[in-house]
Design goal:
Blueprint: E1 3-9, H1 16-23, E2 28-33, H2 40-46, E3 50-53, H3 61-70, E4 78-81, E5 86-88, H4 92-99, E6 106-112, E7 124-132, E8 136-139, E9 145-148, E10 157-167, H5 178-188, H6 193-205, H7 209-221, H8 228-244, H9 248-261, H10 267-278, H11 282-293, H12 312-323, H13 327-340, H14 345-358
Parallel strand pairs: 1-2, 1-4, 2-3, 6-10
Antiparallel strand pairs: 4-7, 5-10, 6-7, 8-9
Helix pairs in contact: 5-6, 6-7, 6-8, 7-8, 8-9, 9-10, 10-11, 10-12, 11-12, 12-13, 13-14
């Protein structure tokens, strides 16, 4: 099979060599440079990539990605869309070919979106940016998705186990354009529930609490918004907005609604436990963190958040047990928290203090 990587970039010369080394298992690499001024295009060409330069104005991610896809040879079998701040683990080509079947449409593979300060995986989920050459186009100005536009039905999705892509972003880059592009996306397709959800979440990030609540309540009212995980996320974000507004009682109701909507997720349980921790409701903390820890299967969707699957649930339980006089249980939780984040000095100090208190 002919496998071609394609990407868009702007001012990412610092990532060029690392990215090209990672993509070297492909038969070809093509890039659309959207106006770099730091020598990115020249660096990529010197490393073997085919690079075209085109300024996309007004800027849209879908237009840029489609122009990059157009650079892929017509006879390619598999297209692999990545960004320059992402790298595959070695052996990805072999694992992809082993998973691919004749007529397949897309491949899903494991993606580490963020890492903790000590280098451990943070947010992990599965994405689907590998696809057959013909029949797909990118849609939406931001948070763009692959959409089937070919004749008939798309081929089956395959699970490419063994393909691992890591995201190591430039945190200095601005995401200031996201809000306006999301507003445009909803304006263009107001009945797309996914876009409405993302817009409400963006309002939360910007501290626009009332806009967040209004937008996400609309998301929950949409007949197409049926995915329980995303509905629960909207409820959690509404709860956070109310909490920021100082309306803890309303936040509690929304957190409980999120738990009821998706009882298989840790995230709503941990969010509520964190709120109860701030309220010093120690038994509530223990109840909801215990429920969260009983969930052992980590979801493959982007809804999965690092905090809920790291040391936080155990860390919350440390204080809850300690403040209710159960020091031995607090020490056990402190040790479990430290095992999940061994380089965190605060967690290490917690263990030391509790061991000293118990004479352990």
């Amino acid at each position: 099979m002919k496998v071609v990587v394609y990407a868009i970039c702007k001012n990412e010369a610092a990532f060029a060599r690392r990215w090209m080394d990672s993509m070297s298992e492909a038969d070809a690499v093509v890039v659309l440079d959207t106006g770099s001024t730091d020598g990115t295009a020249e660096a990529l060409r010197a490393l073997g990539a085919k690079v075209e330069v085109e300024v996309i104005s007004p800027w849209r991610f879908d237009v840029a990605r489609n122009r990059a896809m157009d650079l892929v040879d017509e006879d390619a079998d598999i297209c692999v869309c990545t960004d320059l701040d992402e790298i595959f683990h070695p052996g990805w080509r072999k694992a992809l070919e082993a998973a691919w079947v004749p007529g397949a449409g897309q491949a899903a593979y494991r993606y580490t979106w963020s890492f903790t300060p000590d280098g451990r995986e943070g947010s992990v989920f599965w994405i689907e940016k590998i696809h057959r050459r013909h029949g797909y186009r990118w849609t939406h100005p931001v948070h763009e998705v692959l959409t089937w536009v070919g004749e008939g039905q798309p081929g089956p999705k395959v699970w490419a186990r063994g393909v691992q892509l890591d995201h190591h972003p430039d945190h200095g880059k601005s995401r200031g354009q996201y809000l306006s592009l999301l507003e445009l996306s909803v304006q263009e397709d107001p009945e797309d529930d996914r876009n409405v959800h993302y817009l409400g979440r963006e309002y939360l990030y910007r501290g626009r609490w009332d806009d967040c609540i209004r937008t996400l309540e609309r998301h929950l009212s949409m007949p197409t918004a049926r995915w329980a995980d995303e509905r629960a996320a909207s409820m959690r974000y509404i709860a956070r907005a109310y909490l920021e507004k100082g309306e803890a009682d309303r936040a509690r109701v929304w957190y409980l609604s999120a738990i009821a909507q998706a009882p298989h997720l840790r995230e709503p349980l941990v969010d509520l436990a964190r709120m109860l921790y701030d309220q010093e409701d120690w038994e509530g903390v223990l109840t909801f963190t215990a429920w969260a820890l009983d969930i052992s299967e980590r979801p493959r969707s982007y809804i999965c958040e690092a905090d809920a699957w790291g040391s936080l649930p155990h860390d919350l339980r440390v204080m809850a047990y300690y403040r209710t006089g159960r020091v031995a249980q607090a020490l056990e939780e402190a040790r479990q928290a430290l095992a999940l984040a061994p380089k965190d000095p605060r967690l290490g100090k917690n263990v030391e203090v509790l061991e000293r208190e118990l004479g352990a």
